[in-house]
Amino acid sequence: MNKISLQLTVLNSQQNLMQLTLNNLTDAPIQDWLLTLDFARFIEPETLSKGSVLQVGTYTKIKPIQSESIEGQGMYQITFNIKSAPLTNYECDIREAYLSAADDNFVAQHHADILQIKLQLDEQQPIDKITAEAADIAVIPKVNSLKVHDGEFVISAQLAYSVCAQLAQNDHATAAINWLMCELSYATQLTADNNAQSNLRLLDDSDLADGEYALTVDDSGVTLKASTASGFIHGAATLLQLVKTSEGAQYVISCVEISDKPRFGYRGLMLDCSRHFHSIATVKRLINQMAHYKLNHFHWHFTDDEGWRLEINAFPQLTEIGAWRGPGTQLDPQFSHLTQKYGGFYTQEEVNEVIEYASQRGITIVPEIDIPGHCRAAIKSLPELLVDPDDGSQYRSIQAYTDNVLSPALAGTYHFLDTVIDEVCALFPAPYVHIGADEVPKGVWEKSAKCQQLMAEQGYENEVELQGHLLRHVEKRLKHNGKRMFGWEEVKFGDKVSKETVVCSWISEEAALACVQDGYDVLLQPSKYTYFDLVQDYAADEAGVDWAGALPLQVAYQYEPLAALNQDSPLRQHILGVQCALWSEVVLNQDRIDHMLFPRLLANAEVSWSAAKDKNWDDFCGRLEGQKQYFKRNKINYRHF
Fold first, then answer.
1. Which SUPFAM superfamilies does the record associate with it (predicted)?
2. How far is 431 from 409, CA to CA, in rounded Å?
């Protein structure tokens, strides 16, 4: 068996000049070989010092010059340039690699040991550790009004709760009670006892707005007031965070008066389940954590180039084919598992289960079906509908795909979209559906006779307007189903969608400002403040990706949505809210999800809930220290701070 090792070296970080060294660790020469590896940066083929390269996404094959061998105990080195920002951390490295050779018909896969990448890094100041002492009242996000009184309420092994007659009739408090029963099971057992002696009293207060609540704790118990189910859920979340352990090892709550309401109506988290598949149990766990910090929208990213994760009854091929990648499948390996079949998908029954689970925690699930780019998994699943064999257009997406964009000129595209949209709308009760619309590469549709004919018929001047043609069709279909369209900020390109579409701004605050000035509603998700797949420190061994730089906790906390607008500007009415995101290129499992989200998720929760005037970094740090008990009790693998 051939034993080999690989090492990547940055020769010039400014020019993105790299060197790849392949070491033959045996005495026998390796002849007529092929190197297959997982590398998330695009190698510019014309810059290779020798040999050739073929890349599909991260799936990379390097072939030497014909008849060139690697001598026993020798090495093979090539240099090349990559198309990307400079590499700054070890996770930029090759993740997996193997060698195959002609002497066994390229069947045997000889695993390569990956030596740590050699980086060229400027010296960076490390992020300071938090040294604040844990706050006694450690609620996150910060409440609007808090009065602390002497004394505390001692939680006994059993607590009685009561719900006023009006609440019992309209069922507004049921979800909150059920959630409290579950979350407080470590401390007490809640039982119904509708009399004046109950320890937890839920009362209706019609003067409180949707999502608003008032919470009072004295030595006899807790009174929670709200007018809506979401208000009671938010009050329950605050109550859960007030529980602490006294010196006598009893669970207690300090006597307080709290009045509280959200700054923004939409407070979201997006999880990418296409690049890596995350189980229903993982999704539910995350939704429960979102409710704890008063987030109320879960954006579920189901589809992308690397996998289609949502069962569509009309097109079973989407999950039979598109949910799997690797050997023996239609999709090349990506990001991990070069030699193994990888994937998974959610049945509609499972999705219904999650929708119900989320609704009981005051959370709306917003599905995303990404079009017209990022569609490789769908195209590979339904080529009879989605492939135009006469399209000679040449393009490469930013993720290095040359075949991942739907054609606006094929009847099959519209049959596919209408069918999928109708099923998605029927499945999800949310008023929104996200359709992606991002990162359509230049060059697409230029050499398609059908697309060029459609452009001529419609009087379009360029392919961007053709994309707008397709998105306008989708917008109308969604409206027919009673839904409002969400899209990344590229959805506005081509000027074809109406002001009813919500623009999710991810590239920059400047782009979001332009949208609100044009009269579009926006959901703010600027990558440099809200993309939690980014590294949290400047150290080379920090977990995460670095394409948009580092995103330390303090930067995430100090984000002020559209700071360029005065707080009293009427344009602020176009800000629906704030959302953070976790893309999953390097997020394979539960522990990594925890590490990337916690504690930055708490910072974002405060950005979207608490008034700008009430935010204070030092105060937040003290309350964050007080959250460690919750992290420990729930086995959250948070990044230490």
1. (Trans)glycosidases, beta-N-acetylhexosaminidase-like domain
2. 29
Neighbours of 216 (CB within 10 A): 17
Highest CATH level, class, for 266-528: alpha beta
- Residue 425 region by backbone torsions, left for phi larger than 0, else alpha for psi between -120 and 50, else beta: alpha
Grouping H, G, I as helix, E, B as strand and the rest as coil, residue 14 is: coil
- CATH among 2.60.40.290, 3.30.430.20, 2.60.40.10, 2.40.30.170 for 4-118: 2.60.40.290
CA–CA gap between residue 417 and residue 436 (Å, rounded):
13
pLDDT tens digits, 300-341: 999 999 999 999 999 999 999 999 999 999 999 999 899 999
pLDDT tens for residues 169-222? 778 899 999 999 999 999 999 999 877 679 999 999 999 999 999 999 999 999
Residue position matching structure tokens 């506005």: 492
- Residue pair 585/545 in contact (Cβ under 8 Å)? The answer is yes
Q: Is the CB of residue 401 less than 8 Å from the CB of residue 452?
A: no
List b or e across 499-513, with b for residues whose CB sees 16 or more CB atoms inside 10 angstroms.
eebbbbbbbebebbb
Closest residue by Cα to residue 633 from 332, 120, 245: 245
CA dist., res. 550 & res. 437, Å (int): 26
Q: Which residues contact 206 (CB under 8 A, 6 or more apart)?
A: 227
Spell out the domain ranges in the chain: 4-118, 145-260, 266-528
- CA–CA distances in Å: residue 464 to residues 15, 47, 263, 417: 31, 31, 36, 19
Query: Rounded to whole angstroms, how far apart are CA atoms 286 and 440?
Result: 31
Burial label for 132, CB within 10 Å (0-12, 13-18, 19+), is middle
Task: Enter the CATH code of domain 145-260.
Answer: 3.30.379.10
DSSP string of 329-352, one letter each residue = SSS--BSB-TTS-EE--B-HHHHH
State the distance between the two ends of the chain, measured CA to CA, in whole angstroms. 45
Residue 279 — pLDDT band, cuts 50, 70, 90?
very high
Pairing between strand 522-524 and 502-505? Answer: parallel
474 burial type by CB count under 10 A (0-12 exposed, 13-18 middle, 19+ buried): buried
Rg of the Cα atoms in the chain: 27
